[in-house]
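Protocol step 4 of 5: obtain the predicted structure for the target chain.
Materials: sequence only (see below). No template structures provided, no constraints applied. The aim of this step is simply to have a reference model before the mutagenesis design in step 5. Sequence pasted as it appears in the construct record:
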Amino acid sequence: MAGQAAALDQGEAFARIRLLRSPNVGPVSYRQLVARFGSAGAALEALPDLIGRGGAAYRPASEARVADEIAAVRRAGARYLFSDTADYPALLREADGAPPILIARGHAELASRPAVAIVGARNASAAAVRLARDFGGALAEAGYVVVSGLARGIDGAAHQGALARGAGGGGTIGVIASGIDIAYPPEHAALQDQVASEGLLLAEQPAGTEPLARHFPARNRIIAGIAAGTLVVEAAWKSGSLITARLAGEMGREVMAIPGSPLDSRSHGCNQLIRDGAVLCQRPEDVIELLEGFTGQPRSTFREEGPVFAGGEAAEAAEPADVAGLLTTAPVSVDELIRQSGESAAAVQLALLELELGGRLLRHAGGRVSLAG
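Step 4 output (structure tokens):
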């Protein structure tokens, strides 16, 4: 999956969508299955036997369900982007756990341009909303694609600022936690349509999917992964914006924040980010200076690095390691499991793959895993 294919056979494209929609198959297990069996079609044929070794029956997603989804995507005027094709966002492709498949509506070429994410509070102050709009406009005018999540408050203002610069600006990308055909929040339906028509709208979830709480952290990793840096405008202690910032740090991207008053709880998250090593930004020029010539070596020192393992390692193991007894519902890094088990990385990865496909394993940010609750 690492290389870029010039074209993708329709049968294999259908099989890839079906594999990703099959029970308990996530981005990591998807890549391991394709690496192990050579193609999505071969992986689908092998899945029942692979799961059956643990005594459980397994049925992949039905062809009819996938055909219905593809039809819904077409009705929405959208299309699929596969992670090994040229129109998939290049920086996102490098991120661990990146979506193997995205659904896109709009101008896919925007995903190949330099991008900066702007995120922040939904219940943002009037001053912060104006800042987000001004930063979004100035960064778009400087040629950067402004990426955000189309949420209330800071997200919507950043998109509006970028869109106000028109065709001469860098543009904007909206990443949503629902299906490509679902507008959320409802009051941003017109803005979402404008982003899709003048910029680019991206979704990981199948068409028709309503946004659920667990979809938003997944959406946040896409926002962080597309951009060379993430700017947090206003955020409280515990917010999705800080999740996005942490994910950007894990990916080795720039993390930036606008400081705020210590008397306003909506500024506490940004101030803490700066204390932890995020770069303090007060003007759009500060962001531009930081991102110009970004080479993958960020100057911000905000880091929460997790272990990195190649998803294809499971392809090399003949038998899975016995690691189930080492797992609990508390997340633990995969390298810790390798150390404690004394088994090869490939054997541990294969064991985790089988546990995940059996519905017994959850994967977390930073390469950590746990037993399902």
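Step 4 remarks: The CA atoms of residues 258 and 281 lie 5 Å apart. The chain has three domains: 10-87, 106-291, 311-371.
Proceed to step 5.
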